[in-house]
Design brief:
Layout (H helix, E strand, L loop, with lengths): L1 H20 L13 H19 L5 H18 L8 H11 L4 H21 L7 H86 L4 H29 L19 H10 L3 E7 L7 H21 L5 E9 L2 E8 L20 H12 L2 E6 L5 E8 L5
Parallel strand pairs: 1-2
Antiparallel strand pairs: 2-3, 3-5, 4-5
Length: 395
C-alpha cells in the first residue's frame, strides 16, 4: 500500500511540473521553469516517494532522509510541491512509533519546516499580518500530523497494557485455581486418611480378635463383630460427608452429611479405641470453652491419628494417655504411649516414608491453624505427639 501511494506521489509531481510548464511566470513567480530545475524537482519528488514507500520499515531513517531532502530544496531553491506531502506522512509515522528521540525530532521538524518555507519562499505583495496567518495555516497540518501520530502511539500502548494486564490476570487466576485445587485435594486426602486409617484399623483389630476367640468365646466374637459393624457405619457416615464436598452442586445432598467431629466427640473416639483393646486414659485440663471449628477438627484428627499410630506401631501391650489443656490463647493436645515407639523414618521429615501420611496430615492441619507440632520418641520409651493450637475468638 505504501508503494502504491509512493507511485501516486511521483505521478502527482510529474503532473504538477507539467502544469507549471503551461503557466505564465506572473502566476507562479517561484516555480522552476528550466529543464535543470524540473529535473531537480522531479528527483526530489522521487526521493519523497521513497520516503513514503519505506516509512514503516525504516521510519527513523526516512525521517532523516526527508529532512535532508528539505535542506536540498532550500539550498537549490526548488519550490515546494505535492511531493512535500511526504513530510507530513513521515512525521505522523515517526510520532506513532516507540523511538522517543525520533518523535521529538519530528516535532521540531514540524515546527521549523513551515517557518523555513515562509522565509525561503515568501509570497510577494502580502502584509505582515497575511504572512503570519499564512504561516499559522501552514504550521497547523504539520503539528496536527505529529499530534495524531503521538495519539495513535498512546492508544496502542494503552491497548497493549490492557492486553498484558488481562494476560497477567488470567495467569494469576490459573495459578490461584491450581493452588485452590491442590489445597482442596490435600484437605480431602487428609480427611480420607484419617477416616479410613482409624476406622479400618479398629475393624482389623476387632476382626482378628473375633477370629481368635470364635470357638472358645462366641460372645466375645459376637461383641467384636458388633463393634466392627458400628465402626463400619461410622466410617460410611464420614465418607458420605467427604463425598459431599465433591458434590456441592447436588441438590438436597447436604441433608445426609454428618457434622464435623470436634473435641466433644473425643470421649466417643477414646471409648471406641478402648473397645479395640488399647488402654487409654483421657484428661481435660483448664476451662473448656467454645472453639473455632477448624481448631476442634484439628484436635480431634490429631488424637485420632496418634492413637491409630499407637495401635499400629506400639505393640500389643502398649497403653496411651490423652491430655487436652485449655490455656490462655491456645489449646494444647498431648498424646503419649508407652509402646515400643517408631522407627525414625516414620516421623522424621514429616513422616513421608511410603508407609503412611498421618504425620504429614498432622503437620498440615497444625500449620493451617498457625500452631506447632512436636512428634517423636519420648524419654523412657514410647512415642509422644504434642500440638499447640492458637485459639481465636469463636464466631
Amino acid at each position: 500500500m505504501d508503494s502504491f501511494w509512493a507511485v501516486c506521489l511521483v505521478l502527482m509531481t510529474g503532473a504538477w511540473l507539467i502544469a507549471v510548464d503551461t503557466t505564465s511566470p506572473e502566476d507562479t513567480p517561484h516555480a522552476p521553469y528550466s529543464d535543470g530545475e524540473k529535473t531537480i524537482a522531479l528527483a526530489i519528488g522521487i526521493g519523497y516517494a521513497v520516503v513514503v514507500a519505506f516509512r514503516r520499515r525504516f521510519p527513523e531513517r526516512m525521517l532523516l532522509f526527508a529532512g535532508a531532502l528539505g535542506v536540498v530544496q532550500v539550498v537549490l531553491d526548488s519550490t515546494p510541491g505535492p511531493a512535500n506531502f511526504a513530510m507530513l506522512v513521515v512525521i505522523f509515522t515517526v510520532a506513532a512509533g516507540d523511538v522517543p528521540w525520533a518523535s521529538r525530532l519530528a516535532l521540531v521538524g514540524a515546527a521549523v519546516a513551515p517557518v523555513v518555507n515562509q522565509v525561503r519562499w515568501p509570497a510577494s505583495g502580502e502584509t505582515v499580518v497575511e504572512q503570519t496567518v499564512g504561516l499559522a495555516f501552514l504550521t497547523v497540518p504539520f503539528l496536527l500530523a505529529w499530534v495524531l501520530g503521538d495519539s495513535l502511539r498512546t492508544r496502542r500502548a494503552y491497548y497493549a497494557q490492557l492486553e498484558e494486564r488481562a494476560a497477567r490476570l488470567e495467569r494469576e487466576r490459573e495459578t490461584q485455581s491450581r493452588i485452590a485445587v491442590a489445597a482442596e485435594r490435600a484437605r480431602i486426602a487428609r480427611e480420607l486418611h484419617d477416616v479410613v486409617a482409624h476406622n479400618v484399623s479398629v475393624m482389623v483389630v476387632q476382626a482378628d480378635g473375633a477370629a481368635y476367640v470364635l470357638d472358645s468365646a462366641p460372645q466375645q466374637a459376637k461383641d467384636a463383630l458388633t463393634t466392627i459393624s458400628g465402626t463400619g457405619r461410622q466410617a460410611l457416615a464420614e465418607m458420605r460427608r467427604l463425598l459431599g464436598v465433591l458434590r456441592t452442586g447436588d441438590p438436597g445432598a447436604g441433608s445426609e452429611y454428618v457434622p464435623q467431629p470436634g473435641v466433644e466427640q473425643l470421649a466417643e473416639l477414646i471409648e471406641q479405641v478402648r473397645g479395640a483393646g488399647l488402654t487409654v486414659s483421657f484428661e481435660v485440663a483448664g476451662s473448656p470453652r467454645e472453639l473455632p471449628s477448624s481448631i476442634e477438627l484439628a484436635a480431634y484428627r490429631i488424637v485420632q491419628e496418634a492413637l491409630t499410630n499407637t495401635r499400629k506401631h506400639g505393640g500389643p501391650e502398649a497403653g496411651a494417655s490423652v491430655r487436652l489443656t485449655y490455656a490462655d490463647g491456645e489449646l494444647q493436645v498431648l498424646v503419649e504411649d508407652d509402646g515400643r515407639g517408631s522407627l525414625p523414618e516414620l516421623y522424621e521429615e514429616g513422616g513421608a516414608d511410603g508407609q503412611g501420611h498421618g504425620l504429614i496430615g498432622m503437620r498440615e492441619r497444625v500449620g493451617m491453624t498457625g500452631g506447632e507440632l512436636d512428634a517423636g520418641p519420648r524419654p523412657g520409651g514410647g512415642f509422644r505427639v504434642r500440638a499447640v493450637l492458637p485459639l481465636k475468638t469463636a464466631a
